[in-house]
C-alpha cells in the first residue's frame, strides 16, 4: 500500500502580501482542494528578519508586548516571544523600517536604542537564552543605541552622550561598557542573521545596505567612516571584519562586542528553536518558499535553509513563491526540486500581490496534482 502523503509547509512570509502563517493556510487550502485526503502540517519559518517573532508564536511561544523607543526616538509597541527561558527578539520589532512613516528614511539618525530596551525586557521576563534576529532595520548605528540602552556610555568631546544614530558616531571620543547590564554575562545570546557582511568597507553595513535605508552616496561614505571610527574608539577593529558584524546596520558588531553574542545563520537557529527536525521526520514532502526566490535566497535565506535540512534528511522539497528569478538548475543545486511562482498565474506584480492568497491556493492545487 502506498504511503499516505504527509506534507510539511515550512515557508517564510511573502513580504508585502502574506505572513508566513497565511502562506501556510492558503497552501493547505489548495492542497486539500486537489487531494482531499492529504495530511498537512504547518510550521511557518523565518530567518531572523521580519516575521521571526510571529513564526515563534505560531510554534507555541508566548507573545510579550512592550513599549520601546522607535528608530526615530518616538515610542513604539514592540513584541518578543518566550518559551521557558528562551526568548526570540526581532530587532525590526523595535528598530525596523516598518516604524518609519511611508517614504521617510533616516539613515544618519535612526537608532537601535529600542532593540536594547527589548533585550532588557526579555531579561526581565527571565530569558537566559536570547535569539536576536536581525534584519529589516532602519538603522546604521553599529548597535550603539542598543548598547547605550543596556548601560553603556558613549560620550563626545564635551563629555555629553552622543545623539542617536550612525552619523553622530564620528563625534565619539570615549566609550565605557562597564555599566552594561550584568545579566548579560549569564545569558547566551545568539546573533541570528541571513547575512555575514563585515562592519565596514565595500561589503560593509553602510555600502551594501545603507541605500535601502535612504542613504545617498555621501551618507554612505559618512556612515562607513563613522562606523570605522566607532570600532577604533571601542578598541576592537578586529571584530569589524567578523562574519555578521555588518548585519542590520552593524547591530551585529554591537552584539558581538558588547553582548558576547555568537553569530549563526538565522534560518539554522530558527529551525532548531521551532522544532523543525521533529516535524520533518513526519513528512513525506516539504513545501517551502518566500515572496521572491532569487539569488539572495540561495545565500542563506529561509527556503535555502529548509532545503538544506531536507536534503540532509532525505526528504524532497518544492517551493512556492511570488516571483521566480533563478533557473531550474540553480534551484535543484539548492535542493529544491521545483518552484511554483504566482507570476505564472498572474504576470502583473501589483495584481499578484493584491490577490496573493487565492493565487497561492491555485498554485498549491497544481503542486498537489504534480507531487502527490
TrEMBL record:
<protein>
    <submittedName>
        <fullName>Glycerate kinase</fullName>
    </submittedName>
</protein>
<dbReference type="InterPro" id="IPR036129">
    <property type="entry name" value="Glycerate_kinase_sf"/>
</dbReference>
<keyword id="KW-0418">Kinase</keyword>
<comment type="similarity">
    <text>Belongs to the glycerate kinase type-1 family.</text>
</comment>
<dbReference type="GO" id="GO:0031388">
    <property type="term" value="P:organic acid phosphorylation"/>
</dbReference>
<dbReference type="InterPro" id="IPR018197">
    <property type="entry name" value="Glycerate_kinase_RE-like"/>
</dbReference>
<dbReference type="GO" id="GO:0008887">
    <property type="term" value="F:glycerate kinase activity"/>
</dbReference>
<dbReference type="InterPro" id="IPR004381">
    <property type="entry name" value="Glycerate_kinase"/>
</dbReference>
<dbReference type="Pfam" id="PF02595">
    <property type="entry name" value="Gly_kinase"/>
</dbReference>
<keyword id="KW-0808">Transferase</keyword>
<dbReference type="InterPro" id="IPR018193">
    <property type="entry name" value="Glyc_kinase_flavodox-like_fold"/>
</dbReference>
Amino acid at each position: 500500500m502506498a504511503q499516505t502523503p504527509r506534507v510539511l509547509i515550512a515557508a517564510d512570509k511573502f513580504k508585502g502580501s502574506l505572513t508566513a502563517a497565511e502562506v501556510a493556510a492558503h497552501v493547505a487550502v489548495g492542497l486539500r482542494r486537489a487531494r482531499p485526503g492529504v495530511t498537512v502540517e504547518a510550521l511557518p519559518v523565518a530567518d531572523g528578519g521580519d516575521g521571526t517573532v510571529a513564526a515563534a508564536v505560531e510554534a507555541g511561544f508566548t507573545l510579550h508586548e512592550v513599549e520601546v523607543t522607535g528608530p526615530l526616538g518616538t515610542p513604539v509597541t514592540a513584541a518578543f516571544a518566550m518559551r521557558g527561558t528562551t526568548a526570540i527578539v526581532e530587532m525590526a520589532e523595535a528598530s525596523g523600517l516598518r516604524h518609519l512613516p511611508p517614504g521617510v528614511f533616516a539613515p544618519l539618525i535612526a537608532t537601535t536604542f529600542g532593540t536594547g530596551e527589548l533585550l532588557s525586557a526579555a531579561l526581565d521576563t527571565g530569558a537566559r537564552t536570547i535569539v536576536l534576529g536581525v534584519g529589516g532595520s532602519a538603522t546604521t548605528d553599529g548597535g550603539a543605541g542598543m548598547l547605550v540602552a543596556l548601560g553603556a556610555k558613549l560620550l563626545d568631546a564635551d563629555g555629553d552622550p552622543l545623539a542617536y544614530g550612525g552619523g553622530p558616531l564620528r563625534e565619539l571620543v570615549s566609550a565605557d561598557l562597564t555599566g552594561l547590564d550584568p545579566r548579560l554575562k549569564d545569558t547566551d545570546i545568539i546573533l541570528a542573521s541571513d547575512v555575514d557582511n563585515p562592519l565596514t568597507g565595500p561589503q560593509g553595513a553602510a555600502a551594501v545596505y545603507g541605500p535601502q535605508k535612504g542613504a545617498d552616496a555621501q551618507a554612505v561614505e559618512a556612515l562607513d567612516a563613522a562606523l570605522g571610527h566607532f570600532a577604533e574608539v571601542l578598541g576592537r577593529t578586529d571584530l569589524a571584519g567578523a562574519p555578521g558584524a555588518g548585519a542590520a546596520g552593524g547591530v551585529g558588531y554591537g552584539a558581538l562586542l558588547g553582548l558576547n553574542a555568537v553569530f549563526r545563520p538565522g534560518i539554522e537557529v530558527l529551525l532548531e528553536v521551532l522544532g523543525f527536525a521533529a516535524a520533518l521526520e513526519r513528512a513525506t514532502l516539504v513545501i517551502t518558499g518566500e515572496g521572491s526566490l532569487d539569488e539572495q535566497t540561495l545565500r542563506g535565506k529561509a527556503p535555502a535553509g529548509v532545503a538544506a535540512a531536507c536534503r540532509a534528511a532525505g526528504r524532497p522539497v518544492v517551493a512556492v513563491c511570488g516571483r521566480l528569478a533563478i533557473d531550474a538548475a540553480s534551484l535543484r543545486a539548492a535542493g529544491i526540486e521545483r518552484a511554483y511562482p504566482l507570476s505564472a498565474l498572474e504576470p502583473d506584480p501589483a495584481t499578484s500581490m493584491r490577490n496573493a492568497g487565492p493565487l497561492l491556493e491555485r498554485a498549491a492545487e497544481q503542486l498537489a496534482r504534480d507531487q502527490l
